[in-house]
Amino acid sequence: MKRTFLQKYKPLNFNFYQNKEDFIVTEEPIAFTNKGNFIVLKIKKENLGTWDLLEKLAKGLNIYEHELGYAGLKDKNATTTQYISIPKKYSKELKKFRHGKITILDTCLHSSKLNIGDLKGNSFTINLHNVSKEDVIIIEQRLKEISKIGMPNFFGFQRFGKDIKENLAKAKQIIEGELKIKDAKLEKMLISAYQSDLFNRWLEKRIALSNEQFGLLKGDVFMQLKDEKLFTPKEITPAILDDFHAQKIVPTGLLCGRNVFRSMAEARVIEEKFDDMTVTQKGLRRAALVYPKDMNVQYNAKEQQCKLSFFLPKSSYATVLIENIQNKNIVIK
Fold this sequence. Notes:
It is globular and about 60 Å long. It has eight helices and 15 strands. Among the domains are: 31-117, TruD, catalytic domain (Pseudouridine synthase, 2-Layer Sandwich); 151-290, Pseudouridine synthase (2-Layer Sandwich). The strands form three sheets. Strands 1, 2, 3, 4, 5, 6, 7, 14 and 15 form a nine-stranded mixed β-sheet that branches. Strands 10-9-11-12 form a four-stranded antiparallel β-sheet. Strands 8-13 form a two-stranded antiparallel ribbon. The chain is 29% helix and 26% strand. Helix 4 (164-175) crosses helix 5. It is an alpha+beta fold.
């Protein structure tokens, strides 16, 4: 899907490579209890996705993969630091664990197994190549504007796999009962991709109706960013607009499924076009916008390399931010 942008920027031409030198991600965790029946591992890894990491940990520790907990999925083609939990009873096995691509930086105790979403967000350091001196100023300006009005929270290309059309078609067949897959993990990933595609197409529609800033509609479901609570105001009042502009609340989009709030009124008219009521997996609401923080730009004129550092809240993609800065889709070869 061709990315849609809030800002009508002129496209920039620079190169972005997703590899262990140019794409560095550090998970920002929740506060751990420092006591309990689970060991949390702070792990640094290179060119290893989260699923691969879990598989190698389970094999190396001789435990079941489902006993491992994780807060978020991390890219394979990168240097990443993330947190994994294991039951405390495997502390002896942990002392013997060794792997060439996996470094355990630190450990602590926690009261429960880590689950998806048990993190504040991620800090990124990304190198952009072949950047002109003039474009560095433009990049800085665009980052400031995006941090002020928000970045459309599209799912990145990583969510869908290489064969996007085929994967989405398989997901639809699974949902309709025409296809059965023995691999439960693969089935879950395919259906998640299907839900994500519907969200992306909804977000594209809402952006098309906006003008340089995301437009709010009566019946939108909002999320309070402080505690992630959802609510639907009766009207878009001045107070709602003030909280939105102050980045206290954000409108959300639907990841269709069971047990999830649907929008109402004007917002529902658009949302229902991207809502598949036959999906039986649990549904969610996802922030339509996210706000980058802690941004820093460094430029090496000799190498024409621009180093970006920033923080994004959980469930958002650094590659989507790069696309917004560049104002065109990233194509990873």
